[in-house]
Amino acid sequence: MTTPRFAVLGAGSIGCHLGGHLVAAGYDVAFVGRPAAMDVLRERGLTLSTSVRPPAHLPPDRLTLATAAEAAAGADYVLVTVKTAATRAAAGDLAAHLAPGAVVVSFQNGLHNPATLRAALPGHTVRAGMVPYNVVGSAPGTVHQGMPGRLMTEPDDTLATALRKAGLSVEARADMPEVQHAKLLMNLNNAVNALSGLPLRDQLGLRPYRRCLALCQREALAAYRAAGVTPARLGPTAPGVTPYVLGLPDGVFRRVAAASLRIDAHARSSMWEDLQRGRATEIDSLQGEVVALAAAHGRGAPANARLAALVHAAESAPRTWSGPELYAELRAAR
Ligand SMILES: NC(=O)C1=CN([C@@H]2O[C@H](COP(=O)(O)OP(=O)(O)OC[C@H]3O[C@@H](n4cnc5c(N)ncnc54)[C@H](OP(=O)(O)O)[C@@H]3O)[C@@H](O)[C@H]2O)C=CC1
Ligand SMILES: CC(C)(CO)C(=O)C(=O)O
């Protein structure tokens, strides 16, 4: 293939981060996003920020901005970065416009986005991808990467080469379903973080919040075992050991989990950002998946179910929970 052309479908935090890096490296990228978001980029351009490098600014004239999926018609790769609840509709928008041979890559959380895209886009290759780090819209037109990490995708040399040229670290994985199950275990913290109202680093530094996550992960691991799912190991700690590590006292945890705490002070979960902006969250694709999988195997997942209910309540009536309050609430649900 000659130099691949890209489109980003869902130009929010992750879409602007991935697409922005590709534009900075000289790739042709069409950003498809909501009118208000595209107006901001049209006015201010796009700034890619981290706490480890000076920000990179892409002026508006370097951005191809659109609000309809037909702008993806010229793309060899379409990176899908909408929230999970929007995947089916986004795929429907895309179906009429995808070029023959175009590859669609889901860089979303949750377990079923690649399957949803495959069902809606027969005849196209759909690859699963995974973003392990946090990106948040830190100012209008600015997306901030708050921690290091390596993207993962199903093997695709052209895609990996482009992402690497764009300065992004990427690993090809033949076991993406297991990777997605492992990522779901991490994402069970999204709800805890969102309800804490704290930056990720502060929230993870507090044992009562970590114990909430540990409760959720234990239920998820039990459901995985019942379903015969073995989540991939993504970091220094095996998934089965993580709940134990999360329960350690703060000082010990800080030493044992130093590598996982390389998070800067701005980083927040994507669910926190949803609640802040008054948007529906992805809770049904995170805690909801655990509850459904457990139920399918005759089990309960009460801590996950309670957290899901609390997040749904916070979608209409925002409130924050202290660690001890939240832990007591989840314990009482069991
Ligand atoms: N942010 C993060 O740190 C991380 C996020 N992820 C995952 O990546 C995915 C994307 O997350 P994130 O970037 O935070 O989400 P955002 O909400 O920031 O971005 C998605 C954007 O796509 C827009 N959108 C939805 N449907 C369409 C459509 N059909 N056409 C055009 N635009 C559309 C949304 O608008 P609207 O809100 O109006 O629907 C929103 O502006 C999620 O699955 C998330 O869980 C994974 C790792 C980290
Ligand atoms: C990176 C992580 C786990 C936490 O920010 C995430 O996936 C999210 O916020 O959705």
TrEMBL record:
NCBIfam families: apbA_panE (TIGR00745), PRK08229.1 (NF006083)
Protein name per UniProt: 2-dehydropantoate 2-reductase
UniProt function note: Catalyzes the NADPH-dependent reduction of ketopantoate into pantoic acid.
Organism: Actinacidiphila acidipaludis
InterPro entries, sorted: 6-PGluconate_DH-like_C_sf, 6PGD_dom2, ApbA, Ketopantoate_reductase, KPA_reductase, KPR_N, NAD(P)-bd_dom_sf
Catalysed reactions, semicolon-separated: (R)-pantoate + NADP(+) = 2-dehydropantoate + NADPH + H(+)
Span of domain Ketopantoate reductase C-terminal: 178-315
Keywords assigned: NADP, Oxidoreductase, Pantothenate biosynthesis
High-level lineage: Bacteria, Bacillati, Actinomycetota, Actinomycetes, Kitasatosporales
Keyword NADP attached: yes
Keyword Glycoprotein: no
Occurrences of domain Ketopantoate reductase N-terminal (ranges): 7-151
